[in-house]
Design goal:
heterodimer; A: about 500 residues; mainly alpha; 21 helices; B: about 120 residues; Helix Hairpins
C-alpha cells in the first residue's frame, strides 16, 4: 500500500465529513478545508517528484493483486495534473473564504465546504484510477458534487441551467457505463492495463466502435464540438468560485480521460483523423461563438470550448512532441481559465454584473483588476512570454514536424483561433475596461470600499493575484515542465512501463 | 444464447430507444423518466456481460458453476448512483415547476437573438 497515492482522494473525503460536522463553527470549517487541500498539494508534489523521472507508482487496494483488486496508478501525467489541480483548488478555496468573510456571496458556506472537498476527491480519483470502473466512480463523485455546487445560491436561471447540465452529464455517464459493460463483456476485466493487453485479441470492428463510444462519452464531458452546446449555457450561470473550478478542472478531467483511453486502451492511428477534424471544428466554432457574446462570462466560456480544441489537436497528432504539447497546454489552460473566471467574479463584486452593455471604464474602477484580467487574457491568446505562447509553440512545432495536409489545416486553424481569441479579448478590453465608468459603477465601488466587506474584497483580489502569479510561474517553469511533459508523452505512447507496473512487475 | 439472456437483450434495446426518445421531449418529467430508463438499460447491459446469467449467484456451500459476481457488484454501484441522481433531478424539476409554473424546457433566448441578427430588417 502506497500512502502517497491514496491521500489525494481519501483525505478530502474524510475532510468532507469533518467539515460537515464543523458546520456551526465557520472558522474551524475553513481551517479544516484549507488544511486538507494543503495536505493534498504537498502530497501531489511528492508524488510528482517520485514519478517525474518516468517511474510508474502503483498501489493495490487491500493487497489484492491486479487485475483482481482495485489499482491506483500514478504516472508523470497523473501526478502533474493532481498537483496543478490541487493548487488551483486551494487558491479558489481561499478566494471563496475571502468572499464569505466579506459577505460578498450568497452561497451557503456550511454546504459549500463539504461538497467542495468531495469534488476534490472525485477529481483526484479520476486522475489516479487504474481501472475503468473506478474511473467511472471518480467521474461520478466529481459530477455529483458539481450538480450540488452549480445550484448554490439558487435563482430561477440557475435551476434551469443546472437542469440542463445535470441531464447532459448524466446521459454521458450512462453511455460511459454502457462502454464499461461492453469492454467487460469483451475482455472480462476492467483493469485498464489488463484491458490494453487483452483488447488486441478482440475483433477489429468492435474495437473501433468502443474507441468511438469512449470518444463520444468524454467528448460530451469535455465539450468538444458538436457536443458543446450545454457548456456556455451552464458554466457562466453558476457563482464565480464554482464556474472557475468547473472551467478549470471538469473539462480537463475529461480531456485527461480521452488521452488515457485513446492511448492506453485503444492506441489507434485511424482515430487521429477524427480527432483532428473535431479539434479544428472545436477551435473555430468555439471562438466564433465567443466573438458574438455580450457578457464577459459567456465570452470566456466560449473561449474555453474553443481552446479544448488545441488539446485534441495535439492528441490527434499521435506523436511524442504532440502529446507533450497537450500536457503543457493542459497545465497552462487549467490555471489561465481559473484566473479569468476569478477576475470575472471580481468584476461582479465591484459592479454587480458582467454584461458588456453596462460595464465601462473598469481600468479606472480598479487598476489591479485590469492588470489581473490582461495577464491571463494575453496568455490565453498566446502572446509571448506567457505560458500560452509556450504551449501553443510546442503544439504547432509538433504539428509541422508531423506533416500532412490535415495537420497543416489544424495548425492554420490554431493560429487563426489565437488571433480571434486576441480579438475577443480586445473586444472586452475596449468595451469594458476603457472609457469613463458609468455613474452607478463608481457609486457601487465607493459603497464597497467603505462597507464592512472591505477585508473580504482585498482578500479576494489578492487571491486572484495569486492565481495570476501561478500562471506566470507556469511560464517561468517552462523548462522543467517540458521535461515532465515529454516523459509523460513517452509513457503514454509506449504504455509497456504502465502495464508492467500495474500487472505486478513493479513494487506494490 | 440462453432464452432469458435473449429476452434481456430485447429489454435493453427497448429501454435504450425509449429512454433516448423521452430524453428529447420538452417536459422535464419525461426527461427524468428517460434518464431512469437509460439507467436501467445500462445496468441490464452490465449484467448481460455475464454469459451465465441463469446460474445461481455466488454462494458458500454451493456445488457447480456460479455466475460472475463482478458485474453484479458494478451494477449495484451504478444503481445507487442513478438512484441518487434521479432523486436530485426530481427535486430540480420540482424547483423549476415552483419557479415558472411549468416544467418545459424553454427556448434559448440567446439563440433567438442571434437568429434575429441574421434576418434582414424588413422581414422581422
Amino acid at each position: 500500500m502506497n500512502l502517497l497515492l491514496v491521500i489525494p482522494f481519501l483525505v478530502p473525503l474524510v475532510g468532507a465529513a469533518v467539515t460537515l460536522l464543523l458546520r456551526r463553527t465557520p472558522r474551524a470549517q475553513q481551517a479544516a478545508s484549507v488544511l486538507v487541500l494543503a495536505a493534498v498539494v504537498v502530497d501531489a508534489a511528492l508524488l510528482l517528484a517520485k514519478t517525474a523521472g518516468g517511474t510508474v507508482a502503483t498501489s493495490q487496494a487491500g493487497a489484492w493483486e491486479a487485475p483482481l483488486g482495485i489499482t491506483i496508478v500514478a504516472d508523470a501525467l497523473s501526478a502533474l495534473l493532481v498537483l496543478v489541480s490541487s493548487v488551483v483548488l486551494l487558491v479558489v478555496l481561499l478566494y471563496a473564504i475571502g468572499q464569505d468573510i466579506g459577505g460578498l456571496s450568497r452561497a451557503m458556506p456550511q454546504v459549500f465546504h463539504p461538497i467542495y472537498l468531495v469534488l476534490t476527491a472525485g477529481v483526484c480519483l479520476s486522475f489516479l484510477a487504474g481501472d475503468l470502473f473506478n474511473l467511472f466512480v471518480g467521474f461520478e463523485v466529481m459530477l455529483t458534487a458539481s450538480y450540488a455546487l452549480i445550484t448554490q445560491a439558487p435563482t430561477r436561471a440557475r435551476v434551469r441551467a443546472s437542469m440542463i447540465y445535470t441531464v447532459v452529464s448524466l446521459t454521458s455517464s450512462i453511455l460511459f457505463l454502457t462502454g464499461v459493460a461492453l469492454v467487460y463483456g469483451l475482455t472480462g476485466t476492467v483493469n485498464m492495463a489488463d484491458i490494453a493487453e487483452k483488447l488486441g485479441a478482440a475483433p477489429e470492428e468492435l474495437r473501433m466502435v468502443l474507441a468511438l463510444l469512449f470518444l463520444v462519452v468524454f467528448g460530451i464531458k469535455s465539450a468538444l464540438v458538436p457536443m458543446h452546446f450545454w457548456l456556455p449555457d451552464s458554466y457562466p450561470v453558476a457563482i464565480t468560485r464554482i464556474s472557475a473550478i468547473f472551467a478549470a478542472l471538469l473539462t480537463k478531467v475529461a480531456v485527461y480521460a480521452i488521452i488515457r483511453s485513446q492511448t492506453l486502451l485503444f492506441g489507434r492511428d485511424d482515430i487521429s483523423a477524427v480527432l483532428l477534424w473535431m479539434a479544428i471544428a472545436t477551435m473555430i466554432v468555439g471562438i466564433l461563438g465567443a466573438l458574438v457574446q455580450d457578457d464577459i462570462n459567456r465570452v470566456v466560456a466560449f473561449t474555453l470550448v474553443s481552446h479544448i480544441g488545441y488539446m485534441i489537436f495535439g492528441l490527434g497528432l499521435n506523436t511524442v512532441a504532440g502529446i507533450a504539447g497537450v500536457v503543457i497546454y493542459l497545465v497552462h489552460h487549467i490555471v489561465v481559465q481559473a484566473s479569468l473566471f476569478l477576475v470575472n467574479g471580481l468584476i461582479r463584486q465591484y459592479v454587480g454584473h458582467t454584461s458588456l452593455r453596462a460595464v465601462r471604464g473598469l481600468t479606472t474602477v480598479s487598476p489591479a483588476l485590469a492588470l489581473f484580467f490582461l495577464l491571463p487574457a494575453m496568455s490565453l491568446a498566446g502572446l509571448p512570454p506567457m505560458s500560452g505562447f509556450v504551449a501553443k509553440v510546442a503544439l504547432f512545432k509538433a504539428g509541422i514536424e508531423a506533416g500532412g495536409w490535415l495537420v497543416y489545416l489544424g495548425v492554420v486553424a490554431g493560429v487563426l483561433t489565437s488571433l480571434l481569441t486576441l480579438m475577443a479579448i480586445f473586444r472586452i478590453w475596449v468595451r469594458g475596461f476603457w472609457g469613463t465608468p458609468m455613474p452607478d459603477m463608481v457609486e457601487a465601488r465607493a459603497q464597497l470600499r467603505s462597507g464592512s466587506s472591505r477585508a473580504g474584497l482585498r482578500f479576494t483580489t489578492a487571491m486572484t493575484g495569486v492565481m495570476v502569479g501561478v500562471g506566470i510561474t507556469v511560464a517561468v517553469m517552462a523548462g522543467p515542465l517540458t521535461d515532465i511533459a515529454f516523459t509523460a508523452a513517452r509513457e503514454l505512447l509506449d504504455p509497456s512501463a504502465y502495464i508492467d507496473a500495474v500487472l505486478q512487475k513493479g513494487p506494490s | 444464447m440462453s432464452a432469458p439472456g435473449f429476452i434481456l437483450v430485447i429489454a435493453v434495446a427497448v429501454l435504450y430507444s425509449s429512454g433516448f426518445y423521452l430524453l428529447l421531449q420538452r417536459s422535464l418529467m419525461r426527461v427524468v423518466f428517460g434518464i431512469t430508463a437509460l439507467g436501467h438499460a445500462a445496468n441490464i447491459s452490465l449484467l448481460l456481460t455475464d454469459e451465465a446469467i441463469t446460474l445461481p449467484p455466488l454462494l458458500t456451500g454451493h456445488e457447480g458453476e456460479l455466475s460472475d459476481p463482478l458485474p453484479q457488484a458494478m451494477t449495484l454501484t451504478a444503481i445507487v448512483i442513478t438512484f441518487g441522481v434521479t432523486t436530485f433531478l426530481l427535486a430540480l424539476a420540482y424547483r423549476v415547476w415552483l419557479g415558472d409554473g411549468n416544467d418545459e424546457v424553454p427556448n434559448d433566448v440567446e439563440d433567438r437573438r442571434i437568429k434575429q441578427l441574421s434576418e434582414p430588417e424588413d422581414s422581422a
